[in-house]
Amino acid sequence: MRLHELILQGWKGFPAQLRLAFTPGIQVLHADADPWPALEALLYPDDGRVEAGRFEAPGAASFRAALTLRSQDGTVWRIVRDLRGASALQRLDSAAGKFENSSTNVLELGPYLRSQLGLPGRTAYASLFRLSGEELPSARPVLDEPYAVSSDASVLESLPPLAEPTPVEPVAVERGDPAAVGRAIAALEAERNEARKVEGLQRQVEEIEARLREVDEHLGRVERLDGELASAIAEAAAYDFEPAVADDLGARLASFDQATARRDEALARLQANREGVAARIDGPGPRPLEKDWRFWAGVGAALAFWLIALITPWKVVALLAIPSFGLPATLALMVVGDRQRRSSAGRRTGYLGERERKASAEWDEATLEVRRAMSAVGVEEVGALAEWLRSRATARERVVGRRGAVDAARAAPEFRAAAAARPGLEARLREVEGAVAAAGMFRTVSEIDAELERLRQDAFGAGAPERQALQGAAGFGAAGFGAFMAAPPSGLGALPSQGTPSGIGAFQLKGSSPGLGALSPLVAGSGGSALPGGPRLPQASGFGRPPSAPPATSPGGDPSSELLGAACAHFLASREELLAALGGRASSCLAQLSGARYERLTWTGSGAIRCGGSVGEHAFGSMAARDRDSAYLALRLAILDSQAEKRPFPVILDDPFAGLDAERQALVARILLGIAARTQILHRTRLASMREGAQVLEAK
């Protein structure tokens, strides 16, 4: 199945009218909302759990959606839904070149799609072929009481001391000798009981390790906060030096600017006055009397008139001396006036200088602390000092915030519960591990069940009344699983081999360890995706036999267990079959995402996931959050890669890799490119690392 076109009208988070055209491969969608609700409402219109009305844009004139897609046989279908009214499923008539209605009954659309397109159920699609960031283990909410350790030691006390089991060799029993068979069966059942007790202890070890890991995460969170507080204190200390910069200096920066403006204005006025005074001082003045011929001519004429009057009878001539002295007197008055004017200008210049010194002194006094702070900080501008003060305030606020976070974390009930629970958990772990160590080597329950079945078959043969009687007395054993898988119902063939997949297997690590190669034929370089040595997954068509065992979910909501349960229901396989088929792909992907810290993905007899590598082997729940994310993604990608080989369904991703580091984002992007070569991936994200090799769609 492949998507061709999606049209939305009136959906919240999208434009009022939106058309998206899809091509094969990866489509990176730049949008503010997840497109899955619209696709879910179109693909599962008869499912009452689809609450499409929650996604209607307020005030929208219409609320519609249409999806065009192509089925496996090449038929083009179009689903049209008016979420306020009618719906229709249409099929393209290639000859006529137009769509014809196949059904307009909304209750018929879902079954019709599942029968014609092989569409899986809504739960299976949402669990296996859609992934969001909230589904990663690190984003799952922590249980309310993660450290509640039962003080009841009855589980351990009820177990007798476990001595090293004595290996039971295969017993050859003559057919028809019930007594010998009974003795052998009794011995094997006794060994199976011991093995069950030890497996129970191992499950306790895994549970306690998981709780210890959660305790350490809470304690480590406080340690990280302490480290952040120390870093914040060191950063704030960089702003402390002598002489100290006042805390209230920020309020004085405005007065600094005001004082500077007043000083500049005063200096400008003084400068204008000084220029006027200078013009009066420096301007041209009258000639000096001793150099002015007019002065001397007037004096000489007056003296001449006096002399004539004295020595001649013309006394009246002496009157002419009066106007003759007028010109020299006028010139003398002009010289005196000029000297008085210059003297006054000189005094004015001194006054202006005093005013200038006073304005500068006032500015110095008003800006003294600011200038001292600038000198201490080593800046020359007030803007740079203001930025420095803001940085210091931010650093101090960070210290206060980090200190508050540390105090709150230490006062939190989770931290106190973790600190109080850790000694008890460690003691309990040592106790249970000691009991496991005392048991020594033992066979698994499944191996003993297989030995019991072989013994019964050798003794009585298949279908004998005695064998049936023994089974009725001893229980179903392991025969049911083997016989049930030996003859699958008709119509469920093995997966077709299509060569080495271009998805996860194409990006295996070089130089994988022998253990990883043994589990992962793809990593070892073998071709094909059928995983030699493990069963092939049957083709899920919606009908057929149920899983061999119901999918189990852990009490704590183990996401890996929930994922495996959904995959078992979809592929119609038991957990052992599923993990055997996907183990190679998942191990290859896990090795890459964990940086070769974990190189193999295995499972226990109960179906619980375990990851092993250079750091040892750990149960899924006891791994660090980062490693749990890597293991969970390895399983998800292996499932997508396996499904893409058989009957590809479009994969819907809602920015699930935003919380990963850049290196793992790049690895996942490469793996997705390989998977997208055989299927279609719609990825809503704005991560640049996911755009390589993808078509970018803008929801605008």
Describe this structure in words.
This protein is an alpha/beta fold and 700 residues long. Among the domains are: 2-24 and 35-138, P-loop containing nucleotide triphosphate hydrolases (Rossmann fold); 249-392. Helices cover 53% and strands 11% of the residues. The protein has helices spanning 36-43, 106-117, 122-128, 154-157, 178-237, 249-282, 293-311, 321-366, 368-377, 382-411, 413-439, 445-460, 465-474, 479-486, 514-519, 521-524, 559-571, 575-593, 625-646, 662-676; strands at residues 2-9, 17-21, 25-30, 64-70, 76-82, 87-93, 98-103, 130-132, 598-603, 609-613, 616-619, 651-654, 680-684, 695-698. Strand 1 (2-9) and strand 2 form a beta hairpin.
Q: How many whole angstroms does the radius of gyration measure? A: 48 Å
Question: How many beta-strand elements?
Answer: 14
Distance between the termini: 26 Å
The biggest beta sheet reads: 6 strands, antiparallel
Could you list the spans in which at least 5 consecutive residues all have pLDDT below 50?
Answer: 142-171, 461-556
- Overall structural class, as computed from helix and strand content, comes to alpha/beta
Strand content: 5-15%
**Helical fraction:** 40-55%
Strand order of the largest sheet: 2-1-4-5-6-7
Average pLDDT metric:
73
**Overall form:** elongated
The number of helical runs is: 20
Organism: Vulgatibacter incomptus
Protein name: Chromosome partition protein smc
InterPro entries: P-loop_NTPase (IPR027417)
Region (Disordered): 527-560
